[in-house]
Amino acid sequence: xxxxxxxxxxxxxxxxxxxxxxxxxxxxxxxxxxxxxxxxxxxxxxxxxxxxxxxxxxxxxxxxxxxxxxxxxxxxxxxxxxxxxxxxxxxxxxxxxxxxxxxxxxxxxxxxxxxxxxxxxxxxxxxxxxxxxxxxxxxxxxxxxxxxxxxxxxxxxxxxxxxxxxxxxxxxxxxxxxxxxxxxxxxxxxxxxxxxxxxxxxxxxxxxxxxxxxxxxxxxxxxxxxxxxxxxxxxxxxxxxxxxxxxxxxxxxxxxxxxxxxxxxxxxxxxxxxxxxxxxxxxxxxxxxxxxxxxxxxxxxxxxxxxxxxxxxxxxxxxxxxxxxxxxxxxxxxxxxxxxxxxxxxxxxxxxxxxxxxxxxxxxxxxxxxxxxxxxxxxxxxxxxxxxxxxxxxxxxxxxxxxxxxxxxxxxxxxxxxxxxxxxxxxxxxxxxxxxxxxxxxxxxxxxxxxxxxxxxxxxxxxxxxxxxxxxxxxxxxxxxxxxxxx
Length: 487
What we know:
Structural class: mainly alpha
Distance between the termini: 117 Å
Order of helices and strands: HHHHHHHHHHH
Shape: flat
Largest sheet: none
Mean pLDDT: 77
Strand content: under 5%
Number of helices: 11
Helix content: over 70%
């Protein structure tokens, strides 16, 4: 409720605003629409004390006519601060003090409630923060344990895959040896003539008349009694290789899945509240994409490992049988073709040693070429690295030439910059000289490499003719290593 009249500090009949000053429209209206005072005597609008109003209100009115006249004067009088002769107070001083104390108590109660709420909220946030941290730590621990399980099974799979790869390589090698040994038993009557014809293709210094060529005409027919057993074991080896590769495929697929799972879980394990890439995924906790349980998950991998071990055992047994067969057949044919085969073996050994020596020298030359090329690249990089320091020094010199008037002084920085430029230019010149020397050395090494490669190609050609052409064609007259499948 607003008061129509009170002390001088009271706002009189003006609307409430949210500011300390009244609205402009209100102030303007108060100045433009001021009503004229009533035609009364000056004493009617004079200031009256509060006791005056109390005494006047206490005077008895003896008649209704006097009360009507008084009401008429009240109705026709404009409420100005000076017109206080007929105004009465709405509240007492006790009401004012009570209102203030009520506001004080309400403010204190509100502050206590707010303080209590603040302390409770802080305690709640701390408890929830600790709970969230513990939950996150427990989850990280569970993920770490899961990663350890994956690492364990991954190591088991890796070990089994390595064993299977080794077994497949061994069986493939035995199979190749068996195929070569079987091929060695073909066309025995044409071996001598074909070998002589191919050996005429040797080049340069390797075109010699050696013991092999003398012994080629002494060859005799080969025994073919072992072909059927070789073919039978070859079919078994092909089928066993297919089974081994199928088991290896299952192991590698399981291994690939575990690598992906470990990568994902490891990334999840290292995720923190400050990590990049974290975000909201609404409803993800209500979706379950699981296709296995821990027991079935471990059993699946264990079954794959057991199946692989079974296939490896069968493959190892077949390899032993093929080894026995190759040794038996080689012993049966060796006595008939010993002389020519020994000559071929000796010649192949000599050629292989020569080739190996050439390859060793070529490897050293290639290594030196590589190191020289790396040196050239290092020199080029060193030259590039000197460009920016040179630019900086020259730019500093150029910038310092713009100093005005007496400031253009040949001071210590100037001398040091000049020295720095000359020093860098001298370094660049020396590096360029070394670069030219390295490039010349590289050209010499390349020429040496070409010479070694040419000689190596001659030796490789001769070795290819004796070992691959002649010995592969000596299906009826194989040497002992070729009888057991070796080249």
